[in-house]
Structures are given as structure tokens and as C-alpha cells.
């Protein structure tokens, strides 16, 4: 099934990796420092989240409410987006519609150029990473300064984010100190690697930028259609500085972030902090509606980004992925993410939600290994604050991938042939019993009742695990013998 | 109660001891067990690998074979999960609403072994004797698809002679995941390494679970290392008695 709507275009932004997931994952697994950093960080966040979620007697009702609001909004997305545009314009803002990453980058670059500024400060935003905005601005001679501490670490380290909430989760304190010493102009050469010392160094570095910046770029956590209000939640206050000090504010927002009413924030502002940072409430929640004369930015632009979201919306099953509020709880509980980290997924959206979102934004053939990057253990579904059934979505996307591949190639691949053969065999008990008898040949390979090596593709199993040798008698043979003996 | 056994393809073909143990256990508890010989496989591997069209005939076969049975028992949380959560979905993908309805009706009478014992038969002490140090791994689909909860542990705690020890990080996946173990063998193995570390830390002689698939994975890793800990299905422990009957 292809939805007919345009996907996020290749060649711009960060939704596609250079390597298939299994290859990238293998490299990440070999990095013992990364394994330790991720294991420690995700374990800490998991425990914090579990504690604050357990405090709320109505957590399951909140999840159901979040799911219902999102499902309702997606079903009437056109209506709410137009309402949002009207309200933002009424309040003195300007709304731009961007079909894809390239168009969004052109719009933002043009707006910054129009102000004459050569620098912008940025609020932490994944959507601007998705479209590769910093690179587009750099190409236009505009320097973007990341102000979120973790994004700053990533930017200074010439690195890529590896987590939705904690983009530098793959780095430990010692590595961050090294990056600061190497890249941060004017940093104290005697910098310690304590969290307080590292944060203070970043404060001093960023303060200068806040005070001189004339343009800020942000993403948005929510946009309220009925009031035209944008909302950003954060922990550090650096976002608040960007949202209030400069003269011009440009917000880039995926179209799925709209919510119908102010009251809906009641649900999401309870779900999001507890799921993401494991806090009852995040320290800074900034909301703004258009512009206010004499207070804060006097020019506000909202860029509404599609970039494959309408294509995602067109799949009645797959569209659930658009319900995501980017809390990252699914990453923190995922046994695959915990072991390989975010870079292996190749997209700015890693982990379980990335495995169902990225392939839908790009088209599955551009991210064909991501739907398989899961053991379907289901921990993500239990953790999701808006009840996205990620395991079922993964299974659905695998089916779409197989169906699309079957349509596009004339000769089926080896896997498709094997699956069809297995289905044909198992559709008949007689054929199945024959196949069982034939598999007994495998007993010839056994040593001490176990198989140490099998031919490809099963060699991937026996590389690290023994396989059971076929038994002398199958269960159904035993059953028949027992019945015939009349015991 | 007359109980139909869905052995699953894995138990039938590779782990017949688990099927025999299930029969022995239920008969010892005074129930009649039947094995409809037209059964084959639930189709989970096909569904989870993307081959739903190939899963469809297997869904239809399961429904045809078991829809006249009063109660179906499955010695697998994963296959029970597939019957309960995927069969109707597969039928609907190919717009076969009558089959989907029939599948839902059979699924409502299909139980994983610990569910059958505790919920349907109302028994926790099955009269078993198993003098070994055992740790229990709650497989992902028993835990999160079926919500089997502590039913297997309640059964194990009543086993005479058992030394039941808690598994650290028990709820983390062992890394099997069906064809995931092949397609993403490196990640699967890394997850297995952590699971084996937890199992071995308990000092248990036996790691048990309600799924032969996950046990094939954990047991395959332990066997490769000659670690001295065996993987044994829950049914085999519950079927064991002092006099071996």
C-alpha cells in the first residue's frame, strides 16, 4: 500500500541512515563505553519515570484521554490547522506552510535573511534536526547556536543527536569535558568534569549569545488551535531566554502537534513531564500567542511542516505514529535502544517510535530495516503516554514492506520463497508431518544432542547459540503411538 | 473438562517433551486431553515477519480445527498471544470478516497453560515435586500481551522441593523475537548476554519459562557456554512428581 501522498524528500535533513540497521547496530554494540553510558542513563530515567507514574491513581485514564484527543485531532487535522492559522494571524503572527524539509529550510532562511541577522539562537528542537535546518542556515552564511545543553554538546562535538529528550545521552561527563575544552572558545583550561562545573561553563558561553541574539528558532510541543497558543516545555530555562529576548521568533512545527483546545493541555502537561524526564512537572513551560506589543518578540512566524506527515496520516493503521508527543519513554524502556543507542537508527527519531515513524515519513523502501529493529517485546507500548501500539505498528509496517516489495520485484526474494514454502507445508498436516520427518536428517549433525553449526541463514543463530537437534520422535508421532497402544 | 491441546509447531517438532508433560499434567489433574491431529502452526512467524498473506491459511486452519473445542490449551504465551491478538487482525487485513469473527470466538476459549490451570481449572497446587534451584523468566508475550502476571509463579511456589529464586531484571526481553534473532543477530545476542548474566547470577540449575521459543534462545546460549544451567519449560516442572508418574 502506498498512500499516494509525497514522502519526506531524500538529500535534505536527517531521516535516513547511511547503513542498514543491523550493520550500524553491530558497530554500536562493539563500543563498550557507549553500552555503559546508555545502560546507566536509561536505567536512571526508567526508575524516575516509574516512581512518578506510580503516584497517579488515574494514570491509565490520562493515557486513554491522551490517545483519544490525538485520534480525534488526526481525524480532523485539516480543520484544526486552519483554525490554528487563523488564531495565530489574528494575534499578530504570520503562518507559513511547508510541504517538506527543503521548503521549510527556504522559508526559515529567507526570514532570517530578511532581518539582516547573521546568527540565530535555537531552542532544543528535533523537528529542525529532522529538516537539517542548521546546515541550510550555514549554507546561507547564518550561524545557528544550539542553547539546550545537550544539543550544545552535540553541536560542539560535530556529532548527531542520539535521543529525543537527551540528545547527548551517548556521552559521559569525561567526554563532555573534552569536547568543551576542545571546542568552547574561552573555556577555563582547568575545567572539572562535575555536572556543576560543566553546566557553569555552558552558562557563561551561552549568556553572551542570548544577550546579542536578534532572532530565535524553536520547535513546539503543542499548538492550541482554539487560541493560537504555542507551547514549549523544557528543563533548563535556556528555551525561555530564546523565546523572550530576541526581536524575531521563528517556530517550526510538525502539523501533528496541534491540539484542539486549551483544556487539552491539562492532559498532556501531566503525561509529558512524567514520561520524559520523570518529573511531576518540568521547570519551564513557555506559552505565547502571536505577539504582544512591548513584550517579547515583536515578530512571530509559525512554519507548519508536512515532510511526509500527510502520507503517514493516509494509512489508517500507521497514522497512530503521529500521536507521539516526543517524550522518549519508549526509547528508555527499549532493550534494543538501550544496547545500540540512537545513531544506529540513522534518523533523528530513534528507538521504537523512530522505527515506526521514520519509515512512514520517508516511505518504507528508504528505511526498510527499521520496522525489523525490534524483538516485539512490547515494553514501548506499556510506557507510551498516549498508548501508541508500537508492536502492532511494527508488524503492520513489516507487512506493508513485504507487500510493496512483492509488487515491485518480478522474482521473489529467498525469504519470500521460504515463507511461502513454510506456509504451504503448514497448511496441510500431511505435508507438515513429512517435513518433520525430513528435518530429522538434521540429527546427523548433532553432537551431545545439540547442533553447533547450521547453514545460512540459520548460521546467524548458531554463531552464538546452540540449536536443538530434531528429536527421534515428534509429539504427534508419540501421540499416535500412544493412541494406537490404547494406553 | 475436555481440553484440546494445541501443541504449537515448535513443541511438536523440536520439544515433544513439553507436549508430553502438558498431557501428563492435565491427565493427572483428572482431565481428558485430546490432540486434534489436523493442527499445524498458529502462523505467528509469518505474521511477525510481514507475511500476513502466508499466515492467512494457517489462521484459517487453526480456526477450522479448534472452533468446536470447549477449551484449548497452549504451552506457549507467544502462540496464545498470536491467536488472541493477531488472528482476527490477519483475517481483517484480507477483508474476511466472517473468519475474523470465528477467530475471535476461538481465541476467547484459547488459554496459555498457566492461565488454564489458575483461571479455568482453579488450581495452583498441581502436586508437583521438583527438587532443584529454579529461576523464572516471564516471557514478553506472557507478560505484556496476555498479562499472565504472577500465575506461573503461583504455580511454581506450590511445587514441593523447589528452591525458587528471583531473576534480576526479569521483565527484560531475552532477545529472541522470532526472525529478529536471525535478522538482527548481533543485537539479539547482546540482549541474550545480559539475560544469561542475570540467570547465572541467581545460581539456579534451571531457568524456566512458559515458552519453548524463548527457552530455545536462553538455553541455546547457556549450552554454547557450557554454563551448567538448563532451560526447562514450566510444563515439565509442573508435570514432575516424586514417583515420576
Explained architecture:
The complex is a heterodimer of chains A (487) and B (245). In chain A, the strands form 3 sheets. In chain A, strands 1-10-7-4-2-3 form a 6-stranded parallel sheet, sandwiched between helices. The mean pLDDT of chain A is 95. Chain A is of the alpha/beta class and 487 residues long. Chain A has helices at 21-29, 32-54, 59-75, 77-90, 101-115, 126-130, 133-139, 149-156, 173-183, 195-212, 238-244, 264-276, 309-313, 329-333, 335-340, 351-362, 379-383, 390-408, 414-426, 429-439, 459-462, 475-485, and strands at 94-98, 119-122, 143-146, 215-218, 222-224, 229-234, 248-254, 258-259, 284-289, 299-305, 450-451, 467-468. Helix content of chain B is 52%, strand content 12%. Chain B contains 14 helices and 8 strands. Chain B has helices spanning 9-13, 16-28, 44-49, 52-66, 77-85, 87-93, 97-107, 113-120, 140-145, 151-157, 180-183, 185-201, 212-224, 234-239, and strands spanning 2-5, 32-34, 71-74, 110-112, 133-136, 163-165, 206-209, 230-233. In chain B, the strands form 2 sheets. A 4-stranded parallel sheet of chain B has the order 2-1-3-4, sandwiched between helices. In chain B, helix 4 (52-66) packs across helix 6 (87-93), helix 5 (77-85) packs antiparallel against helix 7 (97-107) and helix 6 (87-93) runs antiparallel to helix 7 (97-107). The longest helix of chain B has 17 residues, at 185-201. Chain B is globular, with a radius of gyration of 18 Å. The mean pLDDT of chain B is 97. The interface between A and B is large, with 62 and 71 residues.
Q: Outline of this structure?
A:
Chain A is of the alpha/beta class. Chain A has 22 helices and twelve strands.
Which parts of chain A are unreliable, with pLDDT below 50 for 5 consecutive residues or more?
none
Shape of chain A: globular
Q: Please tally the β strands of chain A and state the result.
A: 12
Query: What is the subunit arrangement here?
Result: heterodimer
Question: Which ranges of chain B are low-confidence, i.e. pLDDT below 50, for 5 or more consecutive residues?
Answer: none
- The amount of helix of chain B comes to 40-55%
Tell me the distance between the termini of chain B: 21 Å
The secondary-structure element order of chain B is EHHEHHEHHHEHEHHEHHEHEH
Order of strands, main sheet of chain A, comes to: 1-10-7-4-2-3
Mean model confidence by pLDDT of chain B:
97
For the largest interface, the chains and their residue counts are: A-B, 62 and 71 residues
Strand content of chain B: 5-15%
Structural class of chain A: alpha/beta
Please indicate the percent range of residues of chain A in DSSP E strands (runs of 2 or more). Answer: 5-15%
| Shape field of chain B | globular
Q: Name the strands of the widest sheet of chain B in spatial order.
A: 2-1-3-4
Biggest beta sheet attributes of chain B: 4 strands, parallel
Major beta-sheet overview of chain A? 6 strands, parallel
How many beta-strand runs of chain B?
8
- Separate helix tally of chain B: 14
Amino acid at each position: 500500500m502506498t498512500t499516494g501522498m509525497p514522502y519526506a524528500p531524500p538529500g535534505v535533513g536527517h531521516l535516513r541512515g547511511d547503513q542498514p540497521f543491523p550493520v550500524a547496530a553491530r558497530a554500536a554494540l562493539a563500543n563498550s563505553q557507549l553500552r555503559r553510558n546508555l545502560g546507566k542513563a536509561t536505567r536512571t530515567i526508567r526508575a524516575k519515570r516509574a516512581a512518578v507514574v506510580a503516584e497517579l491513581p488515574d494514570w491509565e485514564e490520562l493515557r486513554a484521554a491522551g490517545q483519544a484527543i490525538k485520534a480525534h485531532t488526526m481525524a480532523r487535522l485539516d480543520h484544526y490547522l486552519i483554525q490554528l492559522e487563523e488564531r495565530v494571524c489574528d494575534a499578530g503572527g504570520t503562518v507559513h506552510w511547508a510541504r517538506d524539509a527543503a521548503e521549510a529550510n527556504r522559508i526559515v532562511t529567507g526570514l532570517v535573511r530578511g532581518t539582516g541577522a547573521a546568527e540565530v539562537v535555537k531552542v532544543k528542537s528535533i523537528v529542525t534536526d529532522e529538516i537539517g535546518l542548521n546546515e541550510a542556515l550555514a549554507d546561507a552564511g547564518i550561524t545557528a547556536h544550539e542553547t539546550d545543553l545537550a544539543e550544545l554538546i552535540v553541536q560542539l562535538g560535530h556529532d548527531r543527536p542520539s535521543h529525543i529528550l537527551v540528545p547527548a545521552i551517548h556521552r559521559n561527563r569525561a567526554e563532555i569535558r573534552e569536547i568543551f575544552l576542545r571546542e568552547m572558545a574561552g573555556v577555563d583550561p582547568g575545567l572539572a568534569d562535575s555536572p556543576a562545573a560543566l553546566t557553569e561553563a555552558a552558562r557563561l558561553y551561552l549568556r553572551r549569545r542570548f544577550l546579542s541574539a536578534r532572532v530565535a528558532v524553536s520547535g513546539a510541543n503543542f499548538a492550541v488551535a482554539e487560541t493560537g497558543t504555542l507551547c514549549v516545555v523544557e528543563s533548563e530555562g535556556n528555551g525561555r531566554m530564546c523565546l523572550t529576548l530576541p526581536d524575531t521568533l521563528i517556530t517550526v512545527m510538525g502539523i501533528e502537534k496541534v491540539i484542539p483546545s486549551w483544556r487539552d493541555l491539562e492532559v498532556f502537561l501531566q503525561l509529558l513531564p512524567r514520561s520524559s524526564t520523570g518529573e511531576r512537572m518540568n521547570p519551564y513551560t513557555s506559552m505565547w500567542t502571536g505577539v504582544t506589543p512591548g513584550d517579547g518578540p515583536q515578530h512571530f512566524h509559525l512554519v507548519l511542516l508536512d515532510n511526509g506527515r500527510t502520507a503517514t496520516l493516509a494509512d489508517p493503521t500507521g497514522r497512530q505514529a503521529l500521536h507521539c508527543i516526543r517524550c522518549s519513554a519508549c526509547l528508555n524502556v527499549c532493550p534494543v535502544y538501550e544496547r545500540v543507542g540512537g545513531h544506529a537508527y540513522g534518523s533523528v527519531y530513534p528507538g521504537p517510535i523512530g522505527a515506526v515513524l521514520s519509515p512512514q515519513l520517508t516511505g518504507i523502501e528508504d528505511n526498510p530495516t527499521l520496522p525489523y529493529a525490534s524483538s516485539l517485546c512490547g515494553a514501548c507500548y506499556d510506557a507510551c503516554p498516549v498508548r501508541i501500539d508500537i508492536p502492532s505498528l511494527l508488524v503492520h509496517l513489516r507487512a506493508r514492506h513485504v507487500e510493496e516489495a512483492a509488487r515491485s520485484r518480478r522474482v521473489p526474494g529467498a525469504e519470500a520463497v521460504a515463507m511461502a514454502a513454510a506456509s504451504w507445508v503448514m497448511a496441510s498436516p500431511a505435508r507438515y508431518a513429512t517435513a518433520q520427518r525430513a528435518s530429522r536428517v538434521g540429527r546427523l549433525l548433532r553432537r551431545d544432542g545439540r547442533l553447533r553449526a547450521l547453514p545460512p541463514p540459520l548460521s546467524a543463530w548458531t554463531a552464538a547459540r546452540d540449536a536443538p537437534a530434531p528429536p527421534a520422535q515428534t509429539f504427534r508421532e508419540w501421540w499416535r503411538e500412544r493412541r494406537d497402544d490404547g494406553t | 473438562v475436555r481440553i484440546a491441546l494445541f501443541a504449537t509447531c515448535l513443541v511438536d517438532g523440536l520439544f515433544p517433551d513439553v507436549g508430553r508433560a502438558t498431557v501428563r499434567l492435565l491427565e493427572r489433574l483428572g482431565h481428558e486431553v485430546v490432540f486434534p491431529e489436523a493442527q499445524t502452526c498458529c502462523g505467528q512467524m509469518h505474521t511477525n515477519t510481514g507475511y500476513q498473506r502466508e499466515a492467512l491459511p494457517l489462521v484459517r486452519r487453526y480456526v477450522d480445527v479448534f472452533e468446536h473445542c470447549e477449551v484449548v490449551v497452549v504451552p506457549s504465551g507467544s502462540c496464545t498471544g498470536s491467536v488472541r491478538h493477531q488472528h482476527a487482525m490477519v483475517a481483517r487485513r484480507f477483508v474476511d470478516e466472517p473468519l475474523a469473527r470465528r477467530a475471535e470466538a476461538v481465541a476467547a476459549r484459547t488459554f496459555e497453560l498457566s492461565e488454564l490451570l489458575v483461571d479455568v481449572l482453579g488450581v495452583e497446587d498441581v502436586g508437583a515435586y521438583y527438587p532443584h534451584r529454579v529461576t523464572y523468566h516471564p516471557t514478553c508475550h506472557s507478560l505484556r500481551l496476555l498479562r499472565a502476571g504472577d500465575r506461573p509463579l503461583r504455580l511454581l511456589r506450590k511445587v514441593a522441593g523447589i528452591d525458587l529464586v528471583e531473576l534480576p531484571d526479569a521483565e527484560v526481553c531475552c532477545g529472541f523475537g522470532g526472525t529478529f534473532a536471525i535478522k538482527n543477530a548481533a543485537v539479539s545476542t547482546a540482549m541474550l548476554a545480559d539475560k544469561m548474566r542475570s540467570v547465572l547470577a541467581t545460581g539456579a540449575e534451571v531457568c524456566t519459562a512458559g515458552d519453548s521459543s524463548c527457552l530455545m534462545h536462553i538455553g541455546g546460549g547457556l549450552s554454547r557456554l557450557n554454563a551448567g544451567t538448563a532451560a526447562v519449560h514450566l510444563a515439565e516442572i509442573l508435570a514432575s512428581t516424586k514417583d515420576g508418574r
